[in-house]
Amino acid sequence: MFRVAICDDEATSLQLNTILVETILKEEGISYEIRTFDDIGLMTEELSRPGQPYDVLLSDILAPGMNGIEAAERLRGIGERLDIIFISSTAEYALEGYKVNALRYLKKPVDSAMLKEALLISYRKTAQKEGLSVTSEGKLYNINYKEIIYAESQARDVELTLKDRRLITHMKISDLEKMLPDQFFRCHRSYIVNLLEVENIERYQATMKNQDYIPISQQQYTEMKNRMFQCQTRNG
Prior knowledge:
- This protein is α/β, with parallel strands linked by helices.
- The protein folds into two domains: 2-127, Response regulator (Rossmann fold), CATH 3.40.50.2300; 131-234, CATH 2.40.50.1020.
- The chain has seven helices and 15 strands.
- Helix 2 runs parallel beside helix 3.
- It starts with a strand and ends with a helix.
C-alpha cells in the first residue's frame, strides 16, 4: 500500500492534485491510500507523530501561518524521511526545497508526466526496501542492494556494476541517488558507491572490492571517509 499525503489550503488545487495522483496510481496499478489536508499546521502535526504511515507528501509552499519549507524543516528536524514533492505557483522557494531534500519542486498547473515520474520514484523506494527495480533492454530486474558495487552516470543513463554483471538503465543518477539507502554515497558527480564494497580509499580515489577504481571529488573526500567509517562500523 502506497500512502500519500496531499496538502493545499486552496480547495480547488487540493481536489485537482488529488484526482491527478489517483489517476496516475490507478493507471500504474498501484494500491494506494490518500489523506488530504487543507491546513499545513495540522498536516505537520499529523505527520510528526511517531509511526506515521505516509510514504510521500505533496505540499503547497505558500500557506498562512507556516509555509511548506518551514513544515518540511520541522519534519526533517525530527528525522522524518518521507519523500516531499512541493507544488507551488511560484519558483521563489525552489532552492530552499533542496535544503530539505525535496524529491521534486513542481509548478502549478502540475505537469502530469513530471508528477508521474516523481511518484514512481517514491513508490519504488517504498516498495523495494531490500533492493532496486530497474528496466534494462526492455526487461525488469529486481536487484538486491548487496549486489550493487557502484553506479556510473552515462549521459541520460546509469550503468550499474553488480557483483556478477553490468546493467544499463535509463535514469538520471540524481534520481537513483534518492532511491538508494544510506550505505550508498555519491562520491563524485558521476559515481555512487556502495560503501560496504569499498576496499580502501586514498586521496581522491576509492578502490572497490572488485578492484575497480572510482574517483572521489575533492569536496566529497572528507565526508566519504566519515560515512565509510560509520557505515562499515554499523555493519560490522
